[in-house]
Design brief:
The chain has 124 residues and is an all-beta fold. Helices cover 0% and strands 52% of the residues.
Length: 124
């Protein structure tokens, strides 16, 4: 099991930036995939961005070109740089690990371990 702790959320105005961090502890495996997900009130959790151990990334269409996922392998930390934020980006953001490998990397159901989340609020 992998333990995950997110940080870096906050409140910003539209057009602003935030950088989320996720510290992982436990064994990730030689090959792995981790990701950022978000859930707005009254909506289903959705995939935002993922990164695999080989550096391969994937993004949901709505954040493409604005968000960048990265990782520090040595410190087992995952990052999400969010630029040009919009009010529709407002949500609780979660870090996830332990990809089951059975479907889309952006599907929340494909991950076993989750952090507690960090809130991002973007005002217009």
């Amino acid at each position: 099991q992998v333990q995950l702790q997110e940080s870096g959320g906050g409140s910003v105005q539209s057009g602003g930036s935030l950088r989320l961090s996720c510290a992982a502890s436990g064994y990730l495996g030689i090959t792995y995939c981790m990701g950022w997900f978000r859930q707005a009130p009254g909506k289903e959790r959705e995939g935002v961005a993922t990164i695999a151990s080989d550096g391969t990334t994937s993004y949901t269409d709505s954040v493409q070109g604005r968000f960048t996922i990265s990782q520090d392998n040595a410190k087992k930390t995952l990052f999400l740089q969010m630029n040009s934020l919009k009010p529709e980006d407002t949500a609780m953001y979660y870090c996830a690990a332990e990809f089951r490998g059975l479907g889309s990397r952006l599907s929340p159901g494909q991950y076993k371990d989750w952090g507690q989340g960090t809130q991002v609020t973007v005002s217009s």
